[in-house]
Structure formats: C-alpha cells, structure tokens
Amino acid sequence: MTTPLITPPLMLYDAPEVAVYAVYMLSAAALAALVCRVISPFLNLPDSKTHVDMALRTTAAVVSALTLTLAFCAIQARTQQTEAQRVVAVEVAAIGGMGRQAVRLGQQGVALHAGLTTYLRSIIDAEFPQMAVAGRDSETQRLAEGLEHATYVAAAGLADALAQDLLQELDEVGTAREERLRHAGDSLPGAFWTLIRLLMLLLLATGTLYPPKPHVLLMLAIQAAGVAALVAFVFLMDRPFRGHLAVSAAPYQSMLINMTHRAEVASTVRRGLLVAEPPAVPAEAARLARDDPHPPVP
C-alpha cells in the first residue's frame, strides 16, 4: 500500500487516533488555504456571482466523488477486518481443540499440552503484535516445529483412531496459522489510495477558483478538514492487523487462560486431590423431596 496524499513521512498506524485525525485535518486545511492564497491571485479570475456559482458546483462535484470513494473504501476495509476476525477465531478454535485432545490423553499428553501452551504464548507476545510488519516470527516458528515433533511422538503410542484425530488437529493448527500470516499484511489496494490522491488534488485545485478573501480561505480550510477526517478514518481501518482499530489478540489470551486452567484441573484429578462430591444419601434425598413444594391437587 502506498501512503495517501496528506500522510506525513512518519507512519501513523501506531499513533493515537486523535493524533491521526489532527495530522490529517490540519494538513489538509493548511494546504487548501495556502493553495487558494498563493495561486488564485495569479489567475485573475472574475469575482462575479456566476463565476462563484460555477466554482461551488465544481467543488461540490469533486467532494461528492471523494466522499463516495471514501465510503466504498470504508466498506472494503470493514470487510477485510471481518475476515481477519474470522481467521483469528478459526486459529483459536483449532488450538483449543488440540489442547482438549492433549488433556484427554492423560499423562501421554502432558508434554504436548505444555508445548502447545508455550506456542500459544509466543503467538500472543511475539508473532501477533509484529506480524503485520515483520511477518513470520522465528521463535514462534521454532516452537511450531517443536509442537509438530511432540505431536508425532505422542501419536506413536496411541491407537490408530486417536493418532489420526491428533494429527488432524495438528494440521488444522498449522493451516490456521498459515492463513493468519497470509492475511497479516492485508490492506486496501493501492489503486484506492491513488484515486483518493487524485481527488484530493482536484479538491485543492478547485480552491484556486475562489478569491483569496479571509472568509473564503476559512471555508476552504473547513471543507478540506472535513474531507480529510474521512480519509483519516479509512486510514485507521486500512490494515486489519495494525493500529488502534486492529483485530485484538484477546481471543488468544482467553484461550491461554482456559488451557492453563484445564491443565491444572486435569493434573489435580490425576493426583487424586480432586474428586467429585458423593451423591446424597437416601435419607437426605428424602428430606429434600419433602421440602419441595407440591403441586396443587385438582
């Protein structure tokens, strides 16, 4: 993706939303006023009602085209974000399924579950925050390969049906990760930003059709700032895995908590420290039955 017309040299994906809006709006307002103030006097255009009406119509046409383009880009960006959320949900479900399978294996799945937990923690801490810029994380890749080795070791001692289920869970985890990495760099096509740049240039060019009076400069600045706010909104949604509106790693964190708790409970049960409560004795059951309200006799 190429940067839009009014993006400053420094990337703003990690900046606060207020700062992004401020940079876009102030830059556009200053450019609009400056273009009119500097270029308009050299054109020596008539200051008649007919000419101003023509200038207003021209500006309105450009603004309409630009706002429609930005609306379409916002819809496209939202669609990409929804797809990114789906990709994350699929991977979390695959990791959770493999974690449950490891717990069911009992002692044979302890090492596998520990490797899966370490792998999930590496996704949260290392790969997910940086994958939009750096792509695949080397440490997470090493842990994924170790998880694959541990899965094959665990499957070697299982019945054929259980081994196939476990290897299928491994394939789903690997496939889900590759899909997430493919979508990590998603953004709006460069053609959209090129169109936005061209329309912004036309909007600035229409400012030269007005006389450089103070109230006109103020009007052009306000108009450009409003359109730039829409551009900033699209910019904030441009990359689904980067910025303050990006897809969150919260599903991974929730799954890590669930897997850790499930492993602790399974370990406690294996040690015999946690048993189910015995059923109520018949006398207690009868007393509870007497306390229950009886339906009215018809």
From TrEMBL:
<dbReference type="Pfam" id="PF14023">
    <property type="entry name" value="Bestrophin-like"/>
</dbReference>
<feature type="transmembrane region" description="Helical">
    <location>
        <begin position="216"/>
        <end position="236"/>
    </location>
</feature>
<keyword id="KW-1133">Transmembrane helix</keyword>
<protein>
    <submittedName>
        <fullName>DUF4239 domain-containing protein</fullName>
    </submittedName>
</protein>
<dbReference type="InterPro" id="IPR025333">
    <property type="entry name" value="DUF4239"/>
</dbReference>
<feature type="transmembrane region" description="Helical">
    <location>
        <begin position="21"/>
        <end position="43"/>
    </location>
</feature>
<keyword id="KW-0812">Transmembrane</keyword>
<keyword id="KW-0472">Membrane</keyword>
<feature type="transmembrane region" description="Helical">
    <location>
        <begin position="55"/>
        <end position="75"/>
    </location>
</feature>
<feature type="transmembrane region" description="Helical">
    <location>
        <begin position="190"/>
        <end position="210"/>
    </location>
</feature>
